[in-house]
Amino acid sequence: MKTILMFTLLLLPLLGSSQSVLSLRLNQFAGGGINSSYQDDYYESDVNIKLRVLSCDLVADFNTSETKFFRTRAGITRWSAQEEYTSSSTDFFNPGTSRTQAGIYRVRQTSMTFALGFGHYITGVAADGTEKNGSKFRTYIGGQLPFTALGKIVSESNDSITDPDNPFAESQVRTTKMDGGFSIGIKGFGGVRYMVSKKLGIGAEVSYGFQYARVGGEEEYYRDGRQLNGDNNGKTNVNLFGFAPVTTSASISLAL
Asked: 3-class secondary structure for 72-104?
């Protein structure tokens, strides 16, 4: 329901406007991993870490004059991290006995952003949608006020322990859910758009600014699918503020 509302608000300004531009942007699509291992006479371990990030949004710019436009933006970001590990240790006094441990740890979060802003075309836009100087490039700068709803942070771990000296060693799945939060800020942006035709364009944009974020709150704990109550419940609050990282994006645009 929140998603439908956000995108409805995004498209409302396009009604009745002229030379409006609707852009689908890819802000970040990244993935990578780290592998590390260690071994000696009594202990060995192997760790693999993977990170995935996807961020995209829909931007609507509608012209209020030849050189100015109003912007609305709605986007979604999802990130996840995963760690897989195995370890084996040998008893110093009993080399024939070893203890092994293996597990997977995952954490993920989804957030949604809505922003309002204004922009200025450097040379103005001609009637056919190109720059007034006849170039197919549109160059622009502007500012926006983004608000982000941060979803719950969910972490899951699945551990398995084998120990000949401990008959109670077992496998268990633990899940922690921490409330999300919000983020607000003010950002400037600048970009260029090349009009392949009168209707279709491709572009790139960079933005930078100040941001405040608050995340955390109630935490829920689960073990093997069963929620734990009482002393296991807790609260975590984190406040972050400062200059946000520089954001770059690539886009494909449709002039309406």
From this structure: EEEEEEEEEEEEEEEEEEECCCCCCCEEEEEEE
